[in-house]
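Action item from last week, closing it out:
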Amino acid sequence: MLKHVHPAISPDLMAVMMQMGHGDELVLADANFPADANAQRIVRADGIDLETLLPAILKFLPIDTFVSEQAMVMEPVDPKAPEPAIWATFRKDLQAAEGREVSLTKIERFEFYDRTRAAYAIVATGSRAFYSNIILKKGVVAPE
């Protein structure tokens, strides 16, 4: 154990975040997502929901400021479906961590799957909220 590290952050997850470079993408996938089938690298976070894990990750992972697509979500298949409630949580957590608005870019379901295959890693969570998948593009840590 380390001080100030949320227990939801496993050693494997911390290592993946530290090994990622600027522009690499990290997928946080819900319990229904085909994570193993799409991952180059997989980190298991079974039993942990995204309401818990996302703010813990954002304490360490800077979000890219040089691109327009900084945080991507899977667009609901039904175009008439209301926006998934979890997205408000994503926005709130991103704003709190970054001190700025980070917009969510909606990506069609199969394009989202394609993008996850190219991601640095997928974190398979236990989140059961529908459409609680998000791709985060890693930014840089500025010099002090």
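Closing note: DSSP finds five helices and six strands in the chain.
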